[in-house]
Amino acid sequence: MSNEAATATTAAEAAPAPDQIPHGLGASLPAADARAKTEGTFPYAADLWAEGLLWAAVLRSPHPHARITSIDTSHAREMPGVRAVVTHEDVPGSPLLGRGKADRPVFASEVVRHHGEPIAAVAADHPDTARLAAAAVIVEYEVLDPVTDPEQAFEAEPLHPDGNLIRHIPLRHGDPDAAGDLVVEGLYRIGRQDPAPIGAEAGLAVPRPDGGVELYLASTDPHTDRDRAAACYGLEPERVKVVVTGVPGATADREDQGFQLPLGLLALKTGCPVKLTATREESFLGHTHRHPTLLRYRHHADAEGKLVKVEAQILLDAGAYADTSSDALAAAVAFACGPYVVPNAFIEGWAVRTNNPPSGHVRGEGAMQVCAAYEAQMDKLAKKLGVDPAELRLRNALATGDVLPTGQTVTCPAPVAELLQAVRDYPLPALPKDTPEDEWLLPGGPEGAGEPGAVRRGVGYGIGMVHMLGAEGADEVSTATVKVHDGVATVLCAAVETGQGFTTLARQIVQETLGIDEVHVAPVDTDQPPAGAGCRGRHTWVSGGAVERAAKMVRTQLLQPLAHKFGMSTELLQITDGKITSYDGVLSTTVTEALDGKELWATAQCRPHPTEPLNDTGQGDAFVGMSFCAIRAVVDVDIELGSVRVVELALAQDVGRVLNPAQLEARIEAGVTQGVGIALTENLRSARGLIRHPDLTGYSLPTALDAPDIQIVKLVEERDVVAPFGAKAVSAVPVVTSPAAIASAVRAATGRPVNRLPIRPQAAVVTGQ
């Protein structure tokens, strides 16, 4: 690393002393960076520094839709301390960016299409100077009427050269004339949730002597970010390097590229390192959010409650640009019927552009929205039939060997009925006592609670499903290298640790395979081969699989001389607790002795079996694997105030195989708690395209006081034979399922339909009591 490079990059992650902790797969190995994060010494992107540092600021549009008539940067350029101002005219390469589709300008030039769209960026010698200079850029606008209703986008004038319709999927499965004895219908709305990372976006760009640039970012997909940056800068990819700094958690694509790319442009223009730390408002305005969704459903069932046909219309509001909306729509349409056997399904799905804030990848995208709707339909159907909601779900539960509405056969373990039975049979929590000292148990807390007599308890259910890895023909591949020298193993893999626990898993894999206690995971940068994005459980499956294969190749190198010496196959030797033994006990030595100062290494790839795009009737084997979850929610609702307290969430989930019990439990609990926010508080509100209160006061995240009692009732370890270690991703499906379960419980407590998320107080108020 050059002198000018950041001094606060992430150090190699090393395991604690082996005599203090367990190791290997199945053990609760703690994260190597846990102590540094606890003590506040872990270097995040906002901690970066370099000699001769300049500060950046971005000018963003105050309008959701307007025509730009002129941009005057002269006043900003003349301010003391300002070193550079860049606009669309200063982009030497491709002017467009985008994760799923490159349709979003680096800087708006003729039209702004959403509130907060970047127009110019400034580099100055002080952050306050940079912000003042950005504000001094004079932009003349011709304000246009924004299109904010996605239903109006079909008839509105095109907002983008590519039109307003991003994708339409008409899924056709079975007999269109099929009908049931009972029919229930519903209209549902899902609000806009934000990833709301506790650490806002930050980064540093450092120019290189060869005319290239190094970007120090909290990126979750460094190679893709590098390639897009190189295209923007008009450089070859090898002249742009992305170094991943400490990522302060990620529940979606971590970085806003409209924030990343100006950094490099300013560094190249000034010849100096340039740093930008986004404000919370900029973070809300810049990065993508969960798709607000409108859903219309009609369920047909026979007299016994068996589903006959599901009809649905799903409309995703993509905001101004496409991003990953096509992927989100595919998941929404494919899982529109949920983990139930549905012989006939007819789903229409659309993703459209509007002048609302941009939407993109957020954990469980597409699947979360439809789960809230189809589970509400199941509650309606149970009520109409007069049967227990859990029993109705059991009658229709999906299982391995059943066929999805996309025509894909479920080949992975799908213990849906087992999961639901586990949470249904789990003992219910005790009722709160009607005494003053227990007022904190009431909805609203001690200062906001109403009369105890107005509180109603409800029990509801939710069953969710998500797909793992990319879909519809995405080439999922990861590369890893394992090196062993002086009794220490090092893993090189560009899989970014975003809080999902990959670095811990990589250490456990090597410990298990090679019997070496001390394992380091090297920092990530784009000099390493690509590993792909850190989402949808990719790194547990694909990158973990690559590490395992590389470790096994090193294991063969280690054991081969011993096997040859004793005239046996390496398969007859095993490594346990740092010792190498043969099946007959003739050979017994330690790994350290066998290494004898040797340096061994191997590189391997993992690529899951291919998938295919959905065809023009929504049919195709689009998914590598699926994961399922069942949740029973218990809530207390004040039917006079409409306040809701989630008392308990009991969860059962199929996990394939538990690789790290403590880590797995933490991921599940975090996902469930995120779902509580989606159900009750989180809604990034906008009025005619303008984001209202883009801060953590206006956007209410659940706190520790809002977290319910979470009971992990059952973890089904039925290994998926096509996945490395047989493990499944665990964090997304609780996010998908818990909002639906909470809404179901509120319906049970109030008798109200509850057809919108987050649940508004007026939706839980019962009049005439």
From TrEMBL:
Aldehyde oxidase/xanthine dehydrogenase a/b hammerhead domain mapped to chain residues: 39-145
Pfam families xref list: Ald_Xan_dh_C, MoCoBD_1, MoCoBD_2
GO molecular function: iron ion binding; oxidoreductase activity
Compositionally biased tracts (Low complexity): 1-18
Region listing for Disordered, in residue ranges: 1-26
The protein's name in its UniProt record: Oxidoreductase
UniProt source species: Streptomyces cyaneochromogenes
